[in-house]
Each structure stands twice: as structure tokens, then as C-alpha cells.
Specification:
371 residues, alpha/beta, Rossmann fold, Tyrosyl-Transfer RNA Synthetase, seven-stranded mixed β-sheet, two-stranded antiparallel sheet, binds tryptophan
Length: 371
């Protein structure tokens, strides 16, 4: 029996991250490696401390290179298939922190081609509308405009295509079939697409005409693409990119699912107005008991509670306060209604600020685009 599935285009069931480390062949993010990061960053980001980022590939190598003075650049991306939700921000927030701490350049890829190929219902016009809206969220995160370039696959294809071809020549149909589960009936664009997602993992080396290490922060569903990249890059004379992998922020309907833009009630969008946030959170599944009386007596279960995960992933960055939230749930001191109201307030405070930055971003989008 398969209890969960994680592919770039489908995440289903309750993900067992330990098993995923085995299945994908990842390395766990250990205290030793976090100590090495801390050597350069002084503190540790809460997303690392809490193991929301839980796995990596070659991060030890990347840090050893950095130690030797061989600086790395960052690469991450977004497939513009809809509005941005809070879950999407998780890898971007760590990326921004890494950019600041390591003074690193960032390539941010917008895969408008991918979403056109994989989502029948989307037109080219529609993916570009989403792309523009998503770029505002990316910029609102606060990336350094002098050190960040957004790559839009369709618009910037003349930069990407020669490099994608080099990847393609080393990649067979049987490999992509095995990695992604494509069928004879898959469209041919889908079969080629991973070549394009590979390119930014070595584009800095192409442009600088010397090898530059690359670190890719991503949600773990994107890892299969980069297994291919890591296989092919050395054949083209480039380093394998290093990767850090994050978990998924659970759906508001329960932790068995990823948040999904296609089901608006499962997630909070960055553009949601306060009333909408209130409604979504008040209707969320929780780890609470059936009655207040039972909850006072037996306490709730944070481990299965999306509301708790929202605090853990984002909305309570102080470890002591998070512990208090957890304890007063387990002891029955706080009931779900109260806990939810506190969360709504925090989300709305964050969104007010984010939406303000998002509007400001409209004026500076051009600074982030490739020339
Ligand atoms: N395919 C990703 C998505 O659907 C977007 C993406 C492109 C990406 N390049 C990436 C994500 C690198 C993480 C890292 O969202």
C-alpha cells in the first residue's frame, strides 16, 4: 500500500519525511551541518532550527567550498499556476535569509512554460497573468534587486535554450519516464521540460565562464528534477548543484494534504483580505476534542493540527512562545477558538505588511528582470 506520493506535480497523503529521505536518497540536516552554517550566520534561521528544512544534498561540500573562498549563488523558482499562498513563501523566506547572510546572487525562475504544459485549463495569457502576480510576492519578500534576477522561461528562452539543449542530449526518454512516471500519452513538452528547470542550476557558470557553486532551496517535491540535473551537470563540466529541502505546510483541512491553490479553502493566499482569512481559519480542522469539556479534561493534539503547524512554520518564530502554545493546547488550557483567533490576528498583521510591499513591488518589477 502506498501511504503517500511526492512528485513535482502531485503530493498526496500524509508525507513521512524519514521515508522520503530514504526514497529520494537525501541526507538528513544534522546538528553538525547546522553548526557549520551557524559559523557564518551567527544565528540559525527558525526554519532550519525547527527542521522545516529537513534534508539536503551536498550542503557540506558547498560550505567547504565557501570556507575556501569559493562563493555560491542561489537558485529557486515558482510555477505560476495560480495565486501565491503562505506555503509557497517558506522556501523563499529561507532563500532571502541565505542571500543576506552569504551575500549571494539569486536566480529566481518563473516556469510559465511548465504550467502551460501541465495544466490543460491554462492559456499562455493566463500563466503570464499569474506570473506577474507571483513576481510581486517574490519581490515583496525583500530580495536584493542588485543581486536577484528573475528568469521567465518563455520570455527569456534565448538565454535558456542553448543550455537546455545540452542537457537534453544527455537525457533519455526512459530516464524521465523512470523519474517522473511519464506515459506514452504524456505530451512531448512535458518530457523536455526538466531540461529548462535544470539550466539555472549552472547558468552562473555559463555566464561567468568559470564554475560557480549553486545552492537550491526548494520544497522537497522538486527534488526529482535536480536528480537529473546533478547527473547531467558534471557531464557538461559543471558542479552538481547543492540542495536544501523543505517540508510542506499542511492544508487547513488536515495534515494529510499539501495546501493547494486549486482548493481555496485549504490555504491562505497572500492577497486574502482579513475577513477571508478569518473565515478560512475559523473553519480549519484542528487537533481539538469534540467538546470544550473534553478538551479541558484531556487536552488537544498539536501534532495533527493545521493551526499549530501555521504557528510552527511561520507565525510564531519565538521558540519559547511556540512551546507555550503547544503546552497550553496539550494541557487543555487553551481551546481551539482562542488559538485560532490569535492566529488570525498574526496572519492578518503579516498580510497587511506583505500586501503593502506587494503593491510597492509593481514599480520595481523591471529591476528584477533579465536585460
Ligand atoms: N517547478 C517549480 C514549481 O512548479 C518552479 C521551479 C523552477 C523551482 N525552478 C525551481 C522550484 C527551482 C524550486 C527550485 O513551482
Amino acid at each position: 500500500m502506498v501511504e503517500f506520493i511526492v512528485t513535482p506535480w502531485e503530493v498526496k497523503g500524509k508525507v513521512d519525511y524519514k521515508k522520503l529521505i530514504e526514497q529520494f536518497g537525501l541526507k538528513e540536516l544534522t546538528p553538525e551541518i547546522l553548526e557549520k552554517i551557524k559559523k557564518y550566520t551567527k544565528q540559525l534561521h527558525f526554519l532550519l532550527r525547527r527542521r522545516i528544512f529537513f534534508a539536503h544534498r551536498d550542503l557540506d561540500w558547498l560550505l567547504a567550498e565557501f570556507e575556501k573562498g569559493n562563493k555560491f549563488y542561489l537558485y529557486t523558482g515558482r510555477g505560476p499556476s495560480g495565486k501565491t499562498h503562505i506555503g509557497h513563501l517558506i522556501p523563499w523566506i529561507l532563500t532571502k535569509w541565505l542571500q543576506d547572510k552569504f551575500d549571494a546572487k539569486l536566480y529566481f525562475q518563473m516556469t510559465n512554460d511548465e504550467k502551460f504544459l501541465f495544466k490543460r485549463e491554462l492559456t499562455l495569457e493566463k500563466v503570464d497573468e499569474f506570473m506577474y502576480e507571483n513576481m510581486l510576492d517574490v519581490i515583496a519578500i525583500g530580495f536584493n534587486p542588485r543581486k536577484t534576477k528573475i528568469i521567465r522561461d518563455i520570455q527569456d528562452i534565448s538565454l535558456l535554450y542553448p543550455e537546455a539543449l545540452k542537457v537534453a542530449r544527455h537525457l533519455t526518454f526512459s530516464t524521465v519516464k523512470a523519474v517522473f512516471g511519464f506515459k506514452e500519452s504524456s505530451n512531448v513538452g512535458q518530457i523536455f521540460f526538466t531540461c529548462l528547470q535544470s539550466v539555472p542550476a549552472f547558468i552562473e557558470s555559463v555566464l561567468r565562464k568559470r564554475n560557480v557553486p549553486c545552492l537550491i532551496p526548494l520544497a522537497v517535491d522538486q527534488d526529482p528534477h535536480f536528480r537529473i540535473t546533478r547527473d547531467v551537470a558534471p557531464k557538461l563540466g559543471y558542479y552538481k548543484p547543492a540542495i536544501v529541502h523543505s517540508k510542506f505546510l499542511p492544508s487547513l483541512k488536515g495534515i494529510g494534504e499539501k495546501m493547494s491553490s486549486s482548493e481555496p479553502e485549504t490555504c491562505v493566499f497572500t492577497t486574502d483580505p482579513p475577513e477571508q482569512v478569518e473565515k478560512k481559519i475559523m473553519n480549519a480542522f484542528t487537533g481539538g476534542r469534540d467538546t470544550a469539556q473534553e478538551q479541558r479534561k484531556y487536552g488537544g493534539n498539536p501534532q495533527i493540527c493545521p493551526v499549530y503547524y501555521y504557528y510552527l512554520f511561520f507565525f510564531e518564530q519565538d521558540d519559547k512562545k511556540l512551546k507555550e502554545i503547544e503546552e497550553s493546547c496539550k494541557s487543555g488550557k487553551t481551546l481551539c477558538g482562542e488559538c485560532k483567533r490569535m492566529l488570525i490576528e498574526k496572519i492578518n498583521k503579516f498580510l497587511k505588511e506583505h500586501q503593502r510591499k506587494r503593491e510597492k513591488a509593481r514599480r520595481i518589477v523591471n529591476k528584477f528582470l533579465l536585460k
